[in-house]
Amino acid sequence: MDSLCCFSSVSQVVGGRSSSNSGKGKSSQSPVKYGFSLVKGKANHPMEDFHVAKFVEFKGQELGLFAIYDGHLGDTVPAYLQKHLFPNILKEEDFWNDPFMSICKAYLSTDEAILSHSPDLGRGGSTAVTAFS
């Protein structure tokens, strides 16, 4: 994956533009388009939010992967989610047949992995919102 800096997108921009804090893109196979913008608040701490916005080829299908990871008490957990959550979801065997259960299992296994790495990741945490197209 690309760099895990908070303002560095993990985006594959197809037919769009991207800068360090915003971007847009579109599907090569459907009319789906996306855009994103990251804005740091007024708090006196660094940006802790990460995102994913990209289209990938998965088992012969184009799949849009979109996520926002809102970090709390640091950026290590949202960075971990940016790198690992979608791969964990997509490696679930029943992803196409039962996406709901596959996503639930992947969220749980990713949460367990974060907890098992807590000495390395610190005390922080993150929310995670994911969407597929």
Task: Outline the structure in words.
Residues 33-133 form the PPM-type phosphatase domain. GO terms for molecular function: protein serine/threonine phosphatase activity. Residues 13-30 have a biased composition (Low complexity). InterPro entries: PP2C, PPM-type-like_dom_sf, PPM-type_phosphatase-like_dom. This is PPM-type phosphatase domain-containing protein. With 133 residues, this protein is α+β, with helices and mostly antiparallel strands. It has a single domain (10-132), classed as PPM-type phosphatase domain (Phosphatase 2c, domain 1), CATH 3.60.40.10. 28% of the residues lie in helices and 32% in strands. The protein is built from three helices and six strands. The strands form two sheets. It has a four-stranded mixed sheet with strand order 1-4-5-6, with helices on one face. A two-stranded antiparallel sheet has the order 2-3. Helix 1 runs antiparallel to helix 2 (99-116). The two termini are 20 Å apart.
